[in-house]
Amino acid sequence: MHILKDEGFAEIRVPDIALVIAAVQQQQLDLDDVLYVSAAGPITVTLPLN
Questions:
Q1: What's the pLDDT at 3?
Q2: Model confidence pTM above 0.70
Q3: pLDDT value of position 37
Q4: How many whole angstroms separate alpha carbon 41 and alpha carbon 22?
Q5: Is 39:45 a contact under the CB 8 Å cutoff?
Q6: What does the domain layout of the chain look like in residue ranges?
Q7: Is 38 left (phi over 0), alpha (psi -120 to 50) or beta?
């Protein structure tokens, strides 16, 4: 099963994990701390498993 047409494309954005780790280390954050607040709400160091 194909979701995209042959001439279609997908743009996938993912965080730069090296920058995330550097920020966590620099700010001395714990796993449940807020890394930053986006328009969708707070983004924690780890994602909830819900």
A1: 86
A2: no
A3: 92
A4: 22
A5: no
A6: 12-45
A7: beta
For 49, the token pair is: 């498993």
Phi, psi of 46 (to 5 degrees): -115, 150
Looking at 1-50, list the stretches that DSSP marks H as alpha helix, in order from N- to C-terminal side.
Answer: 17-26
Residue type, 4: L
Residue that the structure tokens 């620099």 belong to: 26
What is the separation, in whole angstroms, between the first and last Cα of the chain? 28
Query: Which tokens go with 48?
Result: 């909830």
For 1-50, the pLDDT digits (tens) are 778 888 999 999 888 889 888 988 999 999 889 988 989 899 888 866 66
| Contact predicate 46/32, CB 8 Å | yes
Looking at residue 47, what is its pLDDT?
A: 64
